[in-house]
Description:
Strand content: 25-35%
Number of strands: 6
Distance between the termini: 10 Å
Number of helices: 3
CATH architecture: 2-Layer Sandwich
Number of domains: 1
Low-confidence stretches: 76-90
Helix content: 25-40%
Amino acid sequence: MRMMSARIDIIPKWVVTGLTSEDKIRLIVGKVKQNVILVLEDVLRPEEQANLIRETMLEIDYETFTGVELLTFNKNPSGKGIMRWKNKPNGNSKITIVAPANSVNILRETSSIISLMLKQT
């Protein structure tokens, strides 16, 4: 299986806020199938996470698409967000990372850091 280079797209909350859950899942699965790592300024609700996993399982093709890695950050206990967006200094950052499973290795995942390594293509 030949992997293409991964790209990272950062999507602000206002882009996904107006989408239905189904449209949000379609956007995510479509991008990830194109080997795009998504960083969403939003947290998927539990039912959206379940739907994302279900849709991913339906799309798996071991030649071109092997699934997703799903990681989420909410506000940390100190009340400060782990990422400060330019117009959002109040520490209410919520972030979801969705990546093609065949493009990243999760090195570390804690409440304060997610370390990913891109796999060699």
